[in-house]
Design a protein that fits this description.
Copper Amine Oxidase, Chain A, domain 1; 2 domains; 12 strands
Amino acid sequence: MSLTRKQFIEKLAPYAVDCMKKTNISAALTIAQGCLESADGNSGLTKKANNLFGIKGKGDAGSIVMPTKEQRSDGSEYTIDASFAMYSSWGACVEAKANMFLKGVSWDKDKYKPVVGKRGEEAAKAVQACGYATDIRYADKLIAIMDAHNLYQYDKLESDVQELTKEITVYYETDKDTGQLLNNTTYVKLTKLGEVFGFACSFDNSTKKANINGRELQDTLLVDGRAYVQVRPLVKAFGGELIWDNSNKTLTVKKSASEDKTE
């Protein structure tokens, strides 16, 4: 039984939103790509391999060889046989695409970096600019789907419409589990800052650098095995406000709906 576009969007949306919460990759983009590349979940590749996005290579369930259309720079099309990834579920496929956007490809780890943090139309344009597809009208097609089905609604997380406030106390007065003050520069524990902004945070033991939404930070402070990052430039980049209270030595980090920068 074939899915209608409405049915497909309703089925894919929870996976896309959950993935956005973890990776900061637009749910609207994920859904629009799924609609376009899987024929609303009705393509042979989707039915046989749970592959919604035409991802090549190997997935968590192996791979499968399928014919695929490619497009030359002049717009003409041609067909080739290619090895596509097989996945155990739609959720696994969505996560695989997100992981590729975060980590790039073997020859360019930053290839899809401009996509991370973008929303809606900007995300669609960034995907095309990064060379994700050979279709020269790829972004236009994605945006048309977003417009027709108001996919932008799925990009609005709770943290985008409600103000979030966290207090981070610098260590020299009370608790160094949240913050450090070094040469008048405030460092905040990586995980604490992630709680405020919904960042996907990790720490690479080999490089001793923190990663936020797939972006490696050069200035990482390690204290007693804890990773801290400079709070001020990150809050400025991602939208927010810092309020320092000298009387009780606390720093309040705020993110509100009116301040939603994801540069």
